[in-house]
């Protein structure tokens, strides 16, 4: 029950209405709720205006011996939500700060070409396409999950929400900045933070120290050479990674037969370039260094094929872009910077307990460490939906085969955990997909397959018209015009064709993959968004994938389900919590209010994933912070394990190390 002042409220009376800023909500043991409490604050009579603040603050008093997982959201509506999660230790008083996200601002025309696509702006203006208004907050939803039930005398106290931190962004902020806005290391000039470098010379000192600390490091003695559970129940050693359900839980099994849970990071060793063309004013003058580096890059392209490949992958300067992360690595390690960086990175991973290079990682063949590969066969698009394959197209089949052949030399590598094929295909547009197919010309492969599908089912157009209540003269002229007049059978057939469409895609990919990689795992296509809840899609993916992968940008995964009758393991390909700090303006797809909050959220997420019976791994997105001025698509998220100057964020690293030390024991002990 809820206690407000002298009044008690039953758990089922979940709405609290009050405009009194001095009121405090107290949660006490009600003998019913056990570990979960939910309620909402209704402010319709006195809407809250936090539009001039960066955060919504809550003072939380945890007067109990239980850990609290606190989930808060405000004004959730269809497609709109701002949410946060906090972890509160037993007997802790904590001020929680919920980051306020906003719709994109109306920028000055002068600066649209400079900052049009970025996801965050200086002064605390963090954008998200799903952000509700912060100027008229009418309802807050609160969910409390406890590690154990409250005891007699325990309570959890909440005060009225309040604004924290002044929003310093307005329509003139960008024009008032001092230019250049970035220093020669790519750091934002106008802010100070712990760990900001003030001299390029410091990079060389840090490089020498890191090489000394991490070169030649191995996993700790409790882990197998692959990072598997050395002290766990031994399984059959097959020489390659495979999956197995053991004691009610799915696992990877490493090549030596040790149970393995994939703790990974995507894009390891890599960094994102930022556009310079038409916005040179943002950047410090690097013309002399550009000339020097160009000579180095040119010499690399003239070297052996291995070095040519490296030169292409690690380009610092392009005609229209600069990669500050790679530039800082070259300054840090000198001429042999790529190999030294890879040595240090591998050592860091083993020291931290990270056993997997996630998708898009930079790993040389001489590095012995489990890794994944992602390939991106060209997607043909269906009408206006560009991020979809046409699995009936010979172009798709040819692109898939070529992509697989390019990595075929890896098919005997025991360190290869598995291969992802494509990323975040737009399956969620299944009804938009059908609209597009209905409007396609008859020569398009997907459209021809649709007509063939209907001919096989109905035999004649008259039979189809009878069922659909339509009046088409042939299968060729079927369209979506006046489709609302058709019967429900029409929509059911579209749903059936969508399943056939997806089945064809996964069947082709799985068949071609196993021809080249008979001993390795097909890790799926990294489903995301609405695809996470598409039962038909899950069923099809589970039929063909060795592991069904999802990109899950939620605060927790405890209740996540594979909606399939086929029992298969799952892998989380991406997740993160961004802080919009340290000179990087954007937060991420899920927010953290501080480095401490980010670290706590990471630990809670991995704890939930590793105790889930079907999840066999989770990979943080991503290795390094995105540029302040945005990568090619504008993302400028502060989500890295390391900064743009290659300095690890100690709070997050300590969280990773803590998680990795207890991961296998926690998974074993979970019922």
CATH architecture of one domain: Sandwich
Radius of gyration: 27 Å
The parts where pLDDT drops under 50 for at least 5 residues are: 1-13
Instruction: Count all strands and give the number.
Output: 28
CATH class designation of one domain: Mainly Beta
Number of helices, counting only DSSP H or I runs of 4 residues or more:
15
- The helix content, as a percent range, equals 25-40%
Describe the oligomeric state of these chains in a short phrase.
Answer: single chain
Work out the strand percent. 15-25%
Name the overall outline. Answer: globular
How far apart the termini lie comes to 29 Å
CATH topology of one domain: Jelly Rolls
* Arithmetic mean of pLDDT: 91
Question: Which structural class do you get from the secondary structure elements?
Answer: alpha/beta
Main sheet makeup: 7 strands, antiparallel
3D structure, described in words:
This protein is of the alpha/beta class. The chain has a domain at 2-175: Jelly Rolls (Sandwich). It has 15 helices and 28 strands. Strands 1, 2, 4, 6, 9, 14 and 15 form a seven-stranded antiparallel β-sheet that branches. A five-stranded mixed β-sheet has the order 3-5-13-7-8. A five-stranded parallel β-sheet has the order 23-19-28-27-26. A hairpin with a 5-residue loop joins strand 17 (249-253) and strand 18 (259-260). Helix 3 (201-214) crosses helix 6, helix 3 crosses helix 7 (337-352) and helix 14 (595-610) packs parallel to helix 15. It is globular. Mean pLDDT is 91; it is low at 1-13.
């Amino acid at each position: 029950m809820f206690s407000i002042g002298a009044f008690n409220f039953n758990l089922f009376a979940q709405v609290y209405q009050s405009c009194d800023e001095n009121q405090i909500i107290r949660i006490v043991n009600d003998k019913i709720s056990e570990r979960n409490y939910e309620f909402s604050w209704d402010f319709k009579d006195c809407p809250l205006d936090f539009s001039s603040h960066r955060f919504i603050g809550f003072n939380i008093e945890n007067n109990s011996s239980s850990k609290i997982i606190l989930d808060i959201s405000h004004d959730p509506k269809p497609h709109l939500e701002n949410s946060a999660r906090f972890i509160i230790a037993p007997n802790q008083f904590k001020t929680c700060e919920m980051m306020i996200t906003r719709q994109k601002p109306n920028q000055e025309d002068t600066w649209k070409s400079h900052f049009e696509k970025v996801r965050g702006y200086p002064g605390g203006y963090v954008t998200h396409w799903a952000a509700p208004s912060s100027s008229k907050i009418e309802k807050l939803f609160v969910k409390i999950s406890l590690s154990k039930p409250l005891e007699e005398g325990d309570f959890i106290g909440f005060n009225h929400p309040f604004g924290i931190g002044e929003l310093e962004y307005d329509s003139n902020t960008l024009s008032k900045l001092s230019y250049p806005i970035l220093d020669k290391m790519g750091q934002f000039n106008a802010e100070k933070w712990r760990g900001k470098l003030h001299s390029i010379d410091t990079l060389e000192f840090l490089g020498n120290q890191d090489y000394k600390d991490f070169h030649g490091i191995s996993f700790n003695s409790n882990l197998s050479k692959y990072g598997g559970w050395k002290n766990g129940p031994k399984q059959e050693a097959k020489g390659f990674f495979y999956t197995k359900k053991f004691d009610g839980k799915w696992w990877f099994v490493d090549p030596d037969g040790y149970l393995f849970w994939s703790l990974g990071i995507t894009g390891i060793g890599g960094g994102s370039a930022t556009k310079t063309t038409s916005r040179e004013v943002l950047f410090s003058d690097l013309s002399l260094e550009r000339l020097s580096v160009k000579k180095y890059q040119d010499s690399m392209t003239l070297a052996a094929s291995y070095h040519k490949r490296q030169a292409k992958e690690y380009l610092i300067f392009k005609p229209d872009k600069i990669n500050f992360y790679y530039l800082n690595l070259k300054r840090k390690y000198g001429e042999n910077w790529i190999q030294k960086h890879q040595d240090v990175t591998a050592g860091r991973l083993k020291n931290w307990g990270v056993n997997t290079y996630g998708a898009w990682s930079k790993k040389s063949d001489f590095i012995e460490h489990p890794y994944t590969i992602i390939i991106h066969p060209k997607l043909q698009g269906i009408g206006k939906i560009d991020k979809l394959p046409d699995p009936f197209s010979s172009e798709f089949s040819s692109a898939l085969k070529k992509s697989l052949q390019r990595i075929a030399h890896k098919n005997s590598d025991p360190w290869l955990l598995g291969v992802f094929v494509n990323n975040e295909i737009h399956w969620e547009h299944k009804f938009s997909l059908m609209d597009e197919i209905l409007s396609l010309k008859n020569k398009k492969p997907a459209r021809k397959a649709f007509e063939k599908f209907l001919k096989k089912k109905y035999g004649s157009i008259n039979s189809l018209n009878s069922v659909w209540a339509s009046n088409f003269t042939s299968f060729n002229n079927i369209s979506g015009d006046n489709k609302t007049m058709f019967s429900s059978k029409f929509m059911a057939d579209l749903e059936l064709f969508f399943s056939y469409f997806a089945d064809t895609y996964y069947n082709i990919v799985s068949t071609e993959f196993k021809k080249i990689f008979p001993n390795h795992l097909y890790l799926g296509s990294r489903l995301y968004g609405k695809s996470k809840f598409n039962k038909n899609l899950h069923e099809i993916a589970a039929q063909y994938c060795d592991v069904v992968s999802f990109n899950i940008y939620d605060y927790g995964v405890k209740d996540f389900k594979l909606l399939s009758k086929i029992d298969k393991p799952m892998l989380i390909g991406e997740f993160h919590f961004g802080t919009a700090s340290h000179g990087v303006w954007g937060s991420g797809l899920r927010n953290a209010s501080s480095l401490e909050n980010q670290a706590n959220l990471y630990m809670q997420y991995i704890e939930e994933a590793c105790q889930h019976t079907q999840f066999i791994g989770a990979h943080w997105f991503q290795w390094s912070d995105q540029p302040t001025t945005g990568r090619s698509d504008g993302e400028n998220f502060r989500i890295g394990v390391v900064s743009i100057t290659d300095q690890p964020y100690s709070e997050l690293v300590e969280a990773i190390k803590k998680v990795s030390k207890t991961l296998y024991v926690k998974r074993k002990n979970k019922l």
